[in-house]
Give the backbone structure.
Amino acid sequence: MANQFVIEAKNVWKSFKTVQAVKGVDIKIPEGQFVALLGPNGAGKTTFVEMIEGIQKPDCGEITIMGKTWKGNEDELHRFLGISLQETLFIDKLNVFETLDLFASFFDLGKQKVNEIIEIVGLEEKRKSYVVNLSGGQRQRLALGVSLINDPKILLLDEPTTGLDPNARREIWEILQRLKDKAGTSMILTTHYMEEAENLCDYIIILDNGKILKEGTLSQLLDEDTNQKVIEFTTEKGVLPEDAHGPDLPFSIRREPTGNKGYVTLTNFESDLPVFMSYLKSRNISLRNMECRRKTLDDLFVSLTGRKIDE
């Protein structure tokens, strides 16, 4: 199946009453690629993934999985997919082993497979624990285990770490990173965590208001082959204007609502920094501190939409 797209979406649209959730999305995902659908709540990520899963049907356009549509191919496609939703409801009075054994039985798999999955998701010490007694992070690892029980060719993860504490989130990342290192599985991950997309995915698709704003590898999106730098600063006195840009300035300044914290992206650091400092001096604005850092996905999202991804 070399060079074949495991998922292909062509001009997909989906609306709910007066809300247009997905607007003409085109996506091609090759075998073995880990893809992030990155965007804020309400961007259309979950709706799009639900159409891939067959839960929703596009109003128009077409989605194919392994070259096939859902119509007439439901049983076959279900065996290709592993799905982990934002929240999974389990039977409280089944333990971890029994829960996985139940799902394994749907695919005629035995206890050896259950033991393998328990090891993969790091729940060996909890194998006899009732689901009701698991922490949030442990429940999400169990949900991930369920999604892996059938050795899926395509793994669909919808916000798998939302609501988890940082340690539990990183445990999920470590499991997914190990899966990535094993060839053969393709993944679509919906997330609003920039770091999650950066760490786990080969290819990132940024969505907002149902549309793809930009897509590419991390280096392509962040233009790592350029000299762009981001200056993050706070002012000691003087208030930054709401917006600062124009033909005479080689940059634009974005400020936080408080007015004393701002960001500026410099394309040519050596020549643009003196211009930036002169701009502040001419307006009697002095700096409390200033930090130079590389451009991030959050900076990119702000440049595309005018707001942060979590706003």
